[in-house]
Amino acid sequence: MSLLAVSNLTKRYRRGDNTIAAVDDVSFHIEPGETLALAGPSGSGKSTIARVVLRLIEPDDGRIEFEGDDFLALRSAALRARRARLQMVFQDPLAAFNPRATVARVLDDPLRIHGIASRSERPRRIAALLERVGLTADLAPRAIHEISGGQRQRVAIARAIATKPSLIVLDEAVSALDVSVRGEILELLLDLQRQEKIAYLFISHDLGVIRSIAHRVILLDAGRVAENGDARTVIDAPQSAIGKALVAAAPRLNRTLMRLASAGLD
Amino acid sequence: MSGRTEGGLIERRPQKSASKQSHTPRGGRDIGFVFQDPSASLDPVMPIGKQIAEVARTHLGLTWSQSYARAKTLLERVRLPDPDSALRAFPHQLSGGQKQRVAIAAAIAAGPKLLIADEATSALDTIVQAEIVALIRRLVTEDGMTLLFISHDIALAAELAGRIAVFRHGQLVELGMTAQIVDAPAQPYTRALLDAHIGLDTKPLLNRAGLHA
């Protein structure tokens, strides 16, 4: 049984008199411990799918099974309880947190709300979470706005894993980071996946990163699945028009070097 | 990190004959600036034609009708579809890539000698980024502008720049021709930046043996 099975998902938005299908009959599944990447240009429906899967917005049509349950049928308390198993990390951690909160407060919330640890136990759990994501416990009293962008994204990951999720939706989670920090965060995500068997729905427009860390990829074009398969197979030899366009547009150091060499510059 | 191209083959000097008297360089007239987020740099309640025209009017002393004519030409040059109606459009009616085209049109409206693009394509998706990079390259060549291209993406900078300056913690680490920086960097930090680049031919981080699906 798949961890997440999405069938015939459709989400329409109204724009003036027209209705536009942001997501149009999309189906996919994610297995435990697997990374499925969603890629495509702006407006292809990547983030809409993420938001529907998280139930931040409701779809117009389709079915989502998560851990064997009809996820779209869950309401109130049952939905809140199940949400602990389905976490999210967004692109901009400063926008995702209360900027005036401390690191400890940000991590205390999920532990308290989901009844994971008692009040006396929580400081120790917060310290353990910080260490798990490569930070030190002395960061706990610091304000969110005081720490660096890389540290903040680690705190976002710590918050996501606090409730022991089976799936984390990562929406452009490394896109705003410095390249050296990005590499460290990707290593952390892979390490967590190996240790805790967490699955990722990894949304990105960066095919290089997807090829590096995802098992499978879905290429989206105007809300529809254009191509779907093993990440390296698809990206190394895309068959769809959008796949070819995405690959052609990616900056490539080797191609530049060859061009410079053939131009005879030194 | 920043990359810089010198567009064209002619070394540019202040054109004393073109202006009435020599002047200190002024932003908008002599130096065009394009920022990362066009939604933040464009006025949300002013038609885009006026935003471009007022640059030409302010710096070139043109009349409004001359300025609007110039704005229309600029919208054609940045390949915005249907320039006539685009003149009256507001920023929110355009896509991110189209807004960045408008911001570029406004930046070059007074015919600057230097164009500074500060992470001008970083917020765009890969396909639109490639289009905007191609647009900047074409405009810089056509107008003989110097380009200062500021980016965190060394692969992107290398595609555009003749020379690359690598910065870290406010200090210039290394400056050299693109081929030398990319192929034979002298500084370990430059090497680290290149190694952190994840391209389509980089060895994947994921070890496939790890999945128990």
From TrEMBL, chain A:
UniProt cross-references to InterPro entries, sorted A to Z: AAA+_ATPase, ABC_transp_ATP-bind, ABC_transporter-like_ATP-bd, ABC_transporter-like_CS, P-loop_NTPase
Organism taxonomic ancestry: Bacteria, Pseudomonadati, Pseudomonadota, Alphaproteobacteria, Hyphomicrobiales
Matching SUPFAM superfamilies: P-loop containing nucleoside triphosphate hydrolases
One Pfam family recorded for the sequence: ABC_tran
Protein name: Glutathione import ATP-binding protein GsiA
Gene Ontology CC, one term: plasma membrane
Physiological role: Part of the ABC transporter complex GsiABCD involved in glutathione import. Responsible for energy coupling to the transport system.
One function term, GO molecular function aspect: ATP hydrolysis activity
Organism: Mesorhizobium ciceri
From TrEMBL, chain B:
Taxonomic lineage: Bacteria, Pseudomonadati, Pseudomonadota, Alphaproteobacteria, Hyphomicrobiales
Species this protein is from: Mesorhizobium ciceri biovar biserrulae (strain HAMBI 2942 / LMG 23838 / WSM1271)
Start and end residues of each stretch annotated as Disordered: 1-33
SUPFAM superfamilies, alphabetized: P-loop containing nucleoside triphosphate hydrolases (SSF52540)
PANTHER family: ATPASE AAA-TYPE CORE DOMAIN-CONTAINING PROTEIN (PTHR43297:SF14), OLIGOPEPTIDE TRANSPORT ATP-BINDING PROTEIN APPD (PTHR43297)
Name of this protein: ABC transporter related protein
Principal location listed in the UniProt entry: membrane
UniProt xrefs under InterPro entries: ABC_Ni/Peptide_Import, ABC_transporter-like_ATP-bd, ABC_transporter-like_CS, P-loop_NTPase
Pfam families in the cross-refs: ABC_tran (PF00005)
Compartments (UniProt record): Membrane
Family designation: Belongs to the ABC transporter superfamily.
Record-level Gene Ontology MF annotations: ATP binding; ATP hydrolysis activity
Entry-linked Gene3D superfamilies: P-loop containing nucleotide triphosphate hydrolases
Annotated GO CC locations: membrane
Keyword tags: ATP-binding, Cell inner membrane, Cell membrane, Membrane, Nucleotide-binding, Translocase, Transport
Residue intervals of the ABC transporter domain: 3-194
